[in-house]
Amino acid sequence: MNEAIQLRKWMLRKTSLVLNFTHGGQTIAALIMSMVLAALLAGNPPAVKSMMSRIASVRTEVAMADVGRQEADLAAIERPAATLTPEMRGALDFVSKRYRVSADALAPVFRAAQATGRRMNLDPLLIIAVIAIESKFNPYAESVVGAQGLMQVVPHWHQDKIPEGGGTLTIFDPEINVQVGAEVLRDSIRRMGGLILGLQHFAGALDDQDHGYANKILAEKQRLEIAVGRGAGN
Description:
Largest sheet: none
Number of domains: 2
Strand content: under 5%
CATH class of the largest domain: Mainly Alpha
Number of strands: 0
Helix content: 55-70%
């Protein structure tokens, strides 16, 4: 009997050690059998019940730890997307000073421009330049013809791009406005076959032979590029 008891104690020590370094699954299943066997050899049925309860508790703790690790992994994946590149941080600082707008208030706009630009294969600085000319970073701007928000989107013309069920104020949400506006801009560039005419189409100014709107946007983009050290190219 003493040998059986010693065996059970040895198994418990080893089990505790292993559990500290395992993440569940097959290892725990094997430990259950080992612990129950040790208790049976010791001739102590109540110990079997106690060990089974302990195993259930440990498995719960392991499962919760796994969930915590998964959430941490997701946060680590999402964090870079929410972090501005050095170039975009430099542009934000420049815009904040130039337009006298809080950098904290501008940060969500720049994150949206960065993420949307990557997804749509548009230069984020081009998106920022359009916002600067269209609204001067006022998310609640509205023109006499009904163009609204940062990129001055006319909701009536682009209902297919606006999320359903958001209400009439949806387009004033900075992130949504940037996403919709950038999609309209991308479609204009594709339709017209180039940046200059694409910008003119975006502004509804194709009849302007001097390309005044496009020149304003590109001049603003150039200022941004110089500010972040990219150079003077378009």
